[in-house]
Structures are given as structure tokens and as C-alpha cells.
Amino acid sequence: MAWSVIEATPPHLTYLILSAFLILYALFSSFIRNRLHLSEPPLATLLGIIIGPNVLNIVDPRAWGLEDSITQELARVVVGVQVFTVGVDLPKAYFNRHWKSVGMMLGPVMVFGWLIVALFVYLLLGTDIPTALIVSACLTPTDPVLAASVLSNSQFSNRVPRRLKHMLSAESGCNDGVSFPFLYAGIFALTAGSAGDGIKEWILETILYQCILGLAMGAVIGVLANRVLRFSYGNGYIDDSSFLVFYILLAIFSVGVGSTLGSDDFLIAFGAGTGFAWDGWFAKKTAEAHLPNIIDLLLNSSMFVYFGATIPWSRFTPSEYTPFVTPGRLTTLLVLILLFRRLPVVLALKRFIPDIKTYREALFCGHFGPMGVGALFLAIEARAQLETGTARPLPSPPKHSPYENAIEIIRPVICFIVLGSTMVHGLSVAAISVGSHYSKEANERTPLIGGETEGLTGMVHEGGGGESEPSVSEDEDPDRND
């Protein structure tokens, strides 16, 4: 009789296993981050693989009816909140001083990565050029979720100059939105009736409406929200708990504005975060709350568990529409992307990027370009545009579509590369820490492997090169008399 009341259904077991994982990670988070030098995404992805349909078969989102439209919205919220968080966490008026460095990363570096990855996809997977450009566009941005997991407070991140962490964070916050022009260039090249029609749509719809107007709308939302919150706080109309909740609600609101208006969700969210925290006031007020770490643990880790459970392993083999998609070719593509997507161009442009002082720093920034949740979102966005001409994907790819080859190849390629990037970039912190440990003389090493706390060698840490940015001081906060 007692056993009959037990309901070990897949959703119930998911609540149990996911919360248990997050509890265990929270209990040992300092040890995992600062001693093992591991971050949440690779661990969460491995958990998702283990409990997913290909191993223990406890969690099978597809069997629950969670189709690409649900994955798309989950990714939209996770990435939107994360890019908003990046905008808030940047030092006040950051872009006034560092626009050139971020501009180089968003301009020449992204364009080079887009074109070189498209070339690899075209040569290895036998696609046409527009399809290669679409796949490459999904892999062009640096993922803010994976970046946050490595750049957030930890023993390793404290060894990296702050100007590099700020630059990489700013890049990851911007380039998910900036990647839309690359994505739609490939889509319009494949679907437009003529070159003139494609260029017209790309300029008017993607560049002007989605990107430029979207960023402007986000900045206005952020600045207005800042003024309203300061007024409410200064007059004692808002309590401390609502003050913190306002942060998350504004992030989701900005994503909602972007998705409803058909604009660039991520640029609106990033613009809102940047405008909201432009003067540094909110960041100072919430410095002790560690909101980014809470978001990492709850939203981002859950998303990577979900990703691990939905990896389409069977699609990593040849099919009628993807004859060249094989494990060997996908692995070769992954290696080429990791080696050539960013490293050569960042090293070549090092002297034009003011925040990169040495070639060791250029090597670090060139390597550190993870691909993650943002790529998954863009892949579904691309499929939806090819399937329906809108941002809403179908439950399954349509048969006899003129773009069937492109539709079929996008998901397996993106999922394989994201899986590889999650593991490589998630574990690279441990590799760098161990390598740094053994590069020292035996008598200079710490007792614990990778236990060093001084700045990474070959990087500039003093004389303004690695110092923090200006922040709001006590006398700059006139809004409330406590």
C-alpha cells in the first residue's frame, strides 16, 4: 500500500535530481571553483547527458512535448537575462573609455570568425555557401552564459586583469545581438528572390530596425528604469526585497519588449542593462547581493542540464540530407573552429586593441570565445525563418521544403560544436591553472596543484593595466538618507 503512493514520474525525478545537483554544487561551490577550477556548465551538461534519454532515460524533454519552440524561449530568457546582467556589471560609463577595444572585437574579429568558420563548414560538410554562412553565424558570438561562469568571482578570475575580464564580458554581452546581421545575411542570401531584395531587407529590417533601433530602445528603457528606481528608493517607496527583484523583472521586461516587437531581444536587453547601470549606482547598491552568481547557479546551470538531455546523438551520423555529417568530420570542424575562429585574428590585431597589452593576453582572449546557449537560440531562429518565414519554429522540420538540406544540418552541427565548446572552455581554466603551477620552479609552487593566486604570467597587472574601473563613491549617492 505504501509503495502505491510513490509517483516517481520523470518530471518529479527531474525536480529531485536537478535540485539535488544544485544543492550539492552550492555546498561545495568554493571548493569546485577554487580548488578543482571547474565551472557549472560542463558539470551540468554531463548531468543532463547521464539522466537524459540516451543513458538513464530519466529526463526526455522531447517525450514531454518540449519542442524547439520551448527550447527557443528558454534560451531567449536565459541569454537575455545574462546579457542584461553583463550590462549591469560593467563599470560605470564603460563604453566611453573602451569603445575601441570592444568595437574591434565586435567588428573585425567577429567578421573574420564568421567567414573562416563558414569556409570550414562549406569544405567539410558539403553545404552551399548561404547555408555555411547561416551555420557559421550561429557560432560567431561569444556566449555570455559560458563566459559568466568563467569570468565571475573565483580564484582563477582574480588572476586575470580586470580590463580583460571587462572587455570579454562586454563583448559577450553585445555579440549575441550583433550576430543577427550575420545570421540574416545568410538567410536572405538563401531565401531572397534577388540580391537587391535581400540587401534591402537586410539593411532595413535587420540593421536599422532590429539592431540600431533595438539598442536605442534598450538604452532608453534602462535609463528610464534607473530614474524611476532612484526616485522610488530615495523616497522610501520600495523595500529591499523588491529592490533586488526589480533587477530580474527589468531584464525579463526588456526581453519581452524585444520579442514582442520582433526586434533584437539581446541588444535590447544589453542596452537596457547598460543604460540602467550607466552611473554605477545600482551596482554599488547590490554589490553584496551577488546577483550574477545566483543567476549562474539557477538559470544557467538548469539550461545546461536541459541541453545535455536534448543533445541529438543520432543526428551526428550521415542521413539523406546530411551525407557528410559524421563524427570524424564534426570533430575536425570543432578543432578547426577552436584553433582558427578567433586566435589568428586577435593575435594579428593585438596592437589595435588598446585593452590587450601583451601577446599572452591576446592568446588568452583569442582562446576564450565559448559557444553555448546563444548559439542554440540562433540555430532555432535560423530554422524557424527557413521553415515558416517567422521566428516561430515548427514542431518538426517540414518535408519537401526548398531549404530542407539547410534545415536538417543546422541543429546537429550547432549542438555538436556547443557540446565541444562547453567542455573545452569549461575545462580550460583547470588546464591553465595546472599548467601555470608546473611552469614554476619546484620551490615556487604552492602545496596545492593550481593553488596559485598571483596574476597570470605574461599579463600586465599593475600601473593601470589591470586595475578596476571607477565606481560610485559614497558621496555620489545622494538619493537616500539611511
Major sheet attributes: none
User: What distance lies between the first and last C-alpha atoms, to the nearest angstrom?
Assistant: 60 Å
Q: Count the E strands.
A: 0
Rounded to an integer in angstroms, the radius of gyration calculated over CA atoms is 22 Å
Sum up the overall morphology in one term.
globular
Order of H and E elements: HHHHHHHHHHHHHHHHHH
| Secondary structure category | mainly alpha
Features:
482 residues, mainly alpha, 18 helices
Give the helix/strand layout.
Elements: H1 10-27, H2 29-34, H3 40-51, H4 68-89, H5 94-125, H6 129-138, H7 144-151, H8 162-191, H9 195-234, H10 240-261, H11 265-276, H12 281-285, H13 291-310, H14 327-340, H15 343-348, H16 359-367, H17 373-388, H18 404-438
Brief sketch in words of this structure:
It contains 18 helices and no strands. It is mostly helical. Mean pLDDT is 86; it is low at 464-468 and 471-482.
What does this structure look like?
This protein is mainly alpha-helical and 482 residues long. Helices cover 66% and strands 0% of the residues. The chain has 18 helices and no strands. The protein has helices at 10-27, 29-34, 40-51, 68-89, 94-125, 129-138, 144-151, 162-191, 195-234, 240-261, 265-276, 281-285, 291-310, 327-340, 343-348, 359-367, 373-388, 404-438. The longest helix is centred in the middle third of the chain and has 40 residues, at 195-234.
